[in-house]
Amino acid sequence: MKKILLYPLTTEKSIRMIEIENKITFVVNRKAGKVEIAKAITENFKSKVKEVNVQIINNKKVAFIRLKPETPAIDIATKLGII
């Protein structure tokens, strides 16, 4: 099985998105689809995903994952050591 979530993005903008928009940002496998990314977040962090947007930035696929209000993104960021 291929690894879907490679590493969390820790830019100033992504930290602000965690705090304000309840979004967490990951660099993901180029071949991963939105459904696979959502499933990986749900399985790894036991959280509910509201939507996934992806973008290619600097030849890397970046996923912006908005979580449902009952699962704060700041909890995941704390587990990962981002905040």
Helix content: 25-40%
Structure classification: alpha+beta
Radius of gyration: 12 Å
Number of strands: 4
Q: Specify the number of helices.
A: 3
Main β-sheet, in a few words? 4 strands, antiparallel
Mean pLDDT: 95
CATH class: Alpha Beta
Q: What is the total domain count?
A: 1
Overall geometry comes to globular
- CATH architecture label: 2-Layer Sandwich
Trace the largest sheet across and list its strands.
1-2-4-3
By CATH, the topology is Alpha-Beta Plaits
Low-confidence stretches: none
Q: What portion of the residues fall into strands of 2 or more residues? A: 25-35%
Order of helices and strands: EHEHEEH
The CATH superfamily title: RRM (RNA recognition motif) domain
Written description of the protein model:
A four-stranded antiparallel sheet has the order 1-2-4-3. Strand 3 and strand 4 (60-67) form a beta hairpin. The protein is globular, with a radius of gyration of 12 Å. The mean pLDDT is 95. With 83 residues, it is α+β, with helices and mostly antiparallel strands. It has helices spanning 12-21, 34-45, 73-80, and strands spanning 5-8, 23-28, 49-57, 60-67. The chain has a single domain (5-80), classed as Alpha-Beta Plaits, CATH 3.30.70.330.
